[in-house]
Design a protein that fits this description.
The complex is a heterodimer. Chain A has four domains: about 210 residues, P-loop containing nucleotide triphosphate hydrolases (Rossmann fold, 3-Layer(aba) Sandwich); about 160 residues, P-loop containing nucleotide triphosphate hydrolases (Rossmann fold); about 50 residues, no CATH class; about 270 residues, no CATH class. In chain A, about 40% of the residues lie in helices and about 15% in strands. Chain A is built from 31 helices and 27 strands. In chain A, a hairpin with a 5-residue loop joins strand 14 and strand 15. The relative contact order of chain A is 0.08. Chain B is an alpha/beta fold.
């Protein structure tokens, strides 16, 4: 092998193609039995490159049907992608008449086909990480995978670093034992960190064992920025002012994807476009809260060329290749360069043609951010965080799954697990604690021994107790935990999708809101869903989703700072933005590249402090909590704070002086720890971890109500466990994930280190030009429609009553947006923690901004 | 801590924000739905919840005994999560419970989770317990039953009532007492006990003229009326409740 057989060469020639260099490079790697990571921009024939060696091998040495027939396993993050690839792969196989059978296996595969696949596997099986784990947990897995020659992992950059990636890495480690001869192929979009990806793919966990095939270039994307006609908005993130321009671009191009940053934004943009749509262009909507059927319908219409545009969120970042998209429009700041490129790559899936994309910033700060992103793309620079270490909860699930497969020896199993790159640094203590957790809960108090799920025999092998345990495992397998959602159902009609429960809890009958592209009137809550009817009067609201907004990447933030700081770079910016910055320069100062600008000024009867930290909203959210706590202690009477991607703003009763004292590094000490333990972020993390680890039952969307004694409130468990066994492995896993996995705490450290001794304090007599967007945000985020004002004012007194004034309002909000679950009409919420000082009760932040940080 | 006094059937009762009821005239402490050994009950089904729920529940109860110094405790049923619960009590917890009950009159009203008297523990077990004009039972009787003709008032548990108070940031939900002139329903006291919304027909139907909910706070109760209006009718969830 290493060269293309006659038959294949003829097939290429017949289509007017020649094999690309990277396709041949993968053939050579396969011939040498080496694993390889292919990094290429979209449209480079990546998928074919991944499969070509397998097709050639199966052509040269056909495999007889039977239990050992499986030659190539393909794993993709999306079911739909697996199905689509299977279809595309059929073309060359049929054209050349190759003796190859290709099948998919996902959660949708019917039971009888699965059973048949076990005895009579196809030559090429396309599946997902979850289905792979299920296959591996079967006693017959050894035979099934024994003859495996290759494993192809698609979109590997989207998997590595996530919990699904952890699960896949563990599965690959097991495959490494069942089929040591199988080489691996990883297919990835361009990333900033290829080395961890190589390690992720490697059978040994070491990057050096995997060949790197990198395809550079392709045509560079054509990117431009479009500003709204008329005045450039000071604040806001929706970008609605630019919709006429967006509509014009849609009309002028063939097919457009309009990417936005949040689902709420997608609803608003979609409505705005349809208001302008005098030509009745087919424009559709696609986001993660719509029903699957709805999304499939839109995707199918797109694939069939029936749409002119689709307004989409990250739900379309990955996915099948439509090939006919002419342009991508990104509304709102891209927040990260890698993400922008991924989206841009959705246009024109042909490598030699440039992808066309237009950036539509929603406000002045976003203009700078878009400019920074454009600069980065022009210089071929990327951002993104490298994968984090693997989660112990996923490991717990895997331990049980592997015990269901066959008895294991802990030493060998540990060695196997640490060959998976995410677990390369796993300590033996953590491993043993996880096994003990699976065994009987692993509590210091040994009372569950007689309920053990695992037992050890005389030779030290660990067995699973019985088939009931295996059944329970298979029911709960998977690493995706749904947030508490509630269905939206048209009265006497279909389900339109799901919104977060807390949003429904703010609705009263007659309220209207925008969802699934229509204005709906809320009628009532029944056991399973929010019942709505079409139409409605008054200002509609838009459901927001906690945590749906990605924070600005560290790297892009640095570039934004650089542009702001250096007037020579302003020539990249449009005139109004330049004027704005000049005004800032005159009236206050520009943020430093290193160091930190802090402004204080009076406004109304309050004192404002605006700190230009540029570390992303999540980090600022936490920082705001810590800084106001410190202000409180020092007697400045903080009243509230607000976090944007760029700044932290606080307001207080007294003039903040000697501002450096609020940003001393020791605020990250005890105050942080104490706050972290109580924070809703940790509670939410614990809920996910406890579910994945098998402590709590998974919620199945659309599932019938379970008997109530089977439901369990994660918050109550968290409280009890934290009090009685704070060092339990699940709490360790929770803290590790919250502190290490989420980068915001690390980013606060960066802010504080940068600020140390380098704070530039400008005491102003009024608001500065740069601070205006942040102060506008307060209003923008809080009040969506005029009618809400009265509602909010009325309820404020009640919050006070409920909490006795003892709770910071932001704390309430965080819980309301995240910790509320509705199950069959029962609103269930954790008991509240009341440790906040009375005079902090006006602290508030916007619901959407509160993501637990 | 501020307890809220209420008057039913001519008796003055104190609602404690910790979720128990004290009857000063009889020096009686009433507690509902302890669900002891819920953790081990789940463990037997393959979910290893932290085995500290009994300890936690008893510690909280001990605190209340010191606060109110009662001579009698009435547990309103579902004191154990299942029939075998009392037998599964770890030694230390069983010992603590016996010490706690020493010198007290103990009444175990039986519930659907624990239909038999707890093994090896002191006290009187009863389906219903009546003292003066108050009757103590696990599950409230429906309005159209002998309840209609009974004198006095009923003190019950079983439903784990919870209520949501609307705020501008959405609802805030807490366990609560629920009372009208003839009934008092107690929140569940156990460490791992969830709750049922008071607007659920299963609860709302018991208070046809509406009731007052007392939401539990750290230091005090927060009260609000719950109207006779309720959630749209859906098939009522079948008891038993966790």
């Amino acid at each position: 092998m290493g060269t293309l057989p006659e038959l294949f060469a003829a097939w290429f020639a017949g289509r007017g193609w020649t094999p690309r260099p990277h396709q041949l490079a993968l053939l050579r790697a396969a011939a040498a039995g080496d694993s390889a990571l292919l990094i290429a921009p979209t449209g480079g024939g990546k998928t074919l490159a991944g499969f070509l060696p397998s097709l050639v091998t199966l052509h040269r040495t056909p495999r007889p049907p039977g239990p050992g027939a499986l030659h190539t396993l393909y794993i993709s993050p999306l079911k739909a992608l697996a199905v689509d690839i299977a279809r595309n792969l059929m073309a060359p196989v049929e054209d050349m008449g190759l003796p190859i059978r290709i099948e998919t296996r996902t959660g949708d595969t019917p039971q009888n086909r699965r059973a048949r696949q076990k005895d009579d596997p196809p030559h090429i099986l396309l599946t997902t990480p979850e289905s792979l784990e299920l296959l591996l947990s079967q006693p017959e897995a050894g035979e099934f995978f024994g003859g495996l020659g290759a494993v192809v992992v698609d979109e590997i950059h989207a998997l590595a670093g996530s919990k699904r990636g952890d699960q896949l890495a563990l599965g690959l480690a097991r495959l490494g034992r069942l089929a040591p001869a199988a080489r691996r192929v990883g297919l990835s979009a361009t990333v900033a960190w290829p080395e961890p990806l190589r390690a992720f793919l490697s059978p040994s966990g070491r990057a050096g064992d995997v060949r790197l095939v990198q395809v550079r270039g392709g045509a560079p994307p054509e990117l431009s920025i479009t500003l709204p006609e008329g005045r450039l908005p000071w604040g806001g993130h929706m970008g609605l002012a630019s919709m006429p321009e967006v509509y014009r671009r849609i009309r002028e191009a063939g097919v457009t994807i309009v990417f936005v940053n949040t689902r709420a934004q997608s609803e608003l943009c979609f409505q705005a476009l349809w208001r302008l749509n005098d030509d009745n262009l087919p424009i559709a909507l696609h986001h993660g809260s719509l029903t699957v059927e709805q999304r499939r319908k839109v995707e199918a219409a797109m694939a069939a060329g029936k749409l002119r545009a689709v307004v989409a969120t990250a739900s379309l970042d990955l996915g099948i290749d439509w090939g006919n998209v002419d342009q991508v429009i990104q509304v709102g700041a891209p927040k990260g360069v890698a993400r922008l490129l991924q989206r841009v790559g959705r246009a024109n899936h042909r490598m030699d043609e440039a992808s066309r994309a237009i950036l539509v910033p929603a406000n002045r700060f976003e203009v700078i951010e878009c400019t920074a992103a454009l600069e980065a793309v022009r210089h071929g620079e990327l951002d993104g965080d490298p994968p984090r270490p693997g989660g112990l909860d996923v490991l717990a699930q895997h331990v049980l799954a592997m015990a269901c497969h066959a008895p294991f020896h802990p030493d060998e199993f540990f060695a196997e697990v640490t060959r998976a790159a995410p677990y390369a640094t796993l300590s033996r203590r953590d491993f043993d604690d996880v096994v003990r957790f699976v065994e009987d809960g692993g509590y210091a108090l040994k009372v569950y021994e007689r309920f053990r799920k695992l037992f050890r025999d005389a030779e030290g092998l660990v067995h699973v107790r019985d088939t009931r345990v295996a059944r329970q495992l298979r029911m709960n397998l998977g690493t995706i935990v749904e947030t508490p959602l509630i269905k939206v159902r048209l009265r006497g009609g279909p389900v339109l999708g799901e919104v977060e429960e807390w949003f429904v809890s703010t609705l009263v009958a007659g309220d209207c809101f925008i969802f699934a592209g229509q204005t709906l009137r809320f009628e009532a809550l029944d056991a399973m869903s929010a019942v709505v009817s079409r139409g409605g009067e008054g200002d509609p609201r838009v459901p927001a989703y906690a945590g749906s907004r990605l924070p600005l990447s560290t790297w892009l933030a640095a570039r934004v700072r650089e542009i702001l700081h250096d007037p020579r770079k302003w020539r990249l910016l449009p005139q109004p933005v330049r004027d704005w910055l000049r005004l800032q320069q005159k009236q206050s100062a520009l943020p430093e590249k290193d160091g930190m600008l802090v402004e204080t000024f009076p406004r109304g009867s309050r004192w404002f402090m605006v700190a230009y930290c540029f570390e992303g909203r999540l980090a600022h959210q936490t920082l705001g909590m810590l800084v106001t706590k410190r202000m409180e202690r020092l007697g400045f009477g903080p009243l509230g704070y607000l976090a944007t991607d760029y700044v932290l703003a606080t307001w207080s009763a007294f003039e903040p002086t000697d501002v450096a004292q609020f940003f001393e590094e020791d605020i990250l000490g005890e105050e942080l720890e104490e706050w972290m333990a109580e924070s809703s972020m940790l509670r939410r993390t614990f809920r996910n971890i406890a579910t994945i680890a098998g402590l709590l039952e998974k919620n199945y969307p659309g599932q019938e109500k379970r008997p109530r004694q089977m439901t369990m409130n994660a918050d109550l468990i968290y409280d009890v466990l934290r009090k009685h066994e704070p060092d339990h492995v699940l709490l360790r896993a929770t803290r590790q994930e919250a502190a290490g996995g989420l980068t915001d705490v690390a980013r606060i450290g960066l802010v504080l280190a940068r600020a140390k001794g380098r704070i530039k304090h400008m005491a102003l007599d009024r608001v500065s030009p740069l601070a205006v967007p942040a102060l506008i945000e307060e209003g923008r985020e809080w009040v969506a429609g005029g009618a809400e004002d009265a509602l909010l004012a009325e309820a404020e007194a009640m919050v006070d009553d409920v909490t006795g004034g003892a709770e910071a309002f932001s704390g309430l909000l965080a819980e309301v947006t995240e910790a509320v679950r509705v199950r069959a009409g029962i609103v269930d919420k954790p008991r509240h923690r009341e440790r906040r000082p009375r005079n902090a009760r006006f602290i508030r932040t916007a619901p959407r901004g509160v993501t637990g940080a | 801590m501020t307890a809220a006094p209420i008057h039913v059937a001519g008796e003055r009762l104190m609602l404690d924000p910790a979720g128990v009821l004290h009857w000063p005239a009889r020096r009686t402490l009433v507690v509902a739905d302890l669900h002891l050994e819920k953790g081990s009950s789940f463990a037997a089904a393959g979910r290893f919840l932290p085995p500290y729920d009994t300890r936690e529940t008893l510690e909280r109860l001990a605190l209340l005994l010191r606060r109110w110094r009662p001579v009698r405790i009435i547990a309103l049923g579902d004191s154990f999560h299942d029939r075998g619960g009392a037998a599964r009590l770890p030694l230390a917890e069983a010992e603590a419970l016996r010490r706690m009950l020493a010198g007290l009159e103990m009444v175990w009203v039986l519930g659907n989770h624990d239909p038999d008297p707890p093994e090896g523990l002191p006290g009187l077990a009863a389906e219903e317990f009546t003292d003066g004009r108050l009757v103590f039972r696990h599950q409230a009787l429906p309005p159209a039953s002998r309840f209609a003709t009974q004198p006095g008032a009923e003190i019950s548990g079983h439903f784990h009532p919870k209520a949501t108070m609307a705020t501008r940031a959405g609802g805030i939900t807490r366990p609560c007492f629920l009372a009208d002139g003839r009934r008092v329903m107690l929140p569940a006291f156990g460490a791992f006990t969830g709750g049922l919304d008071v607007r659920d027909p299963a609860i709302a139907d018991l208070f046809p003229r509406g009731a007052r909910a007392f939401l539990l706070g750290r230091e005090r109760l927060f009260s609000m009326p719950t109207g006779p209006c309720r959630m749209p009718a859906v098939p009522a969830p079948a008891a038993p409740f966790a």
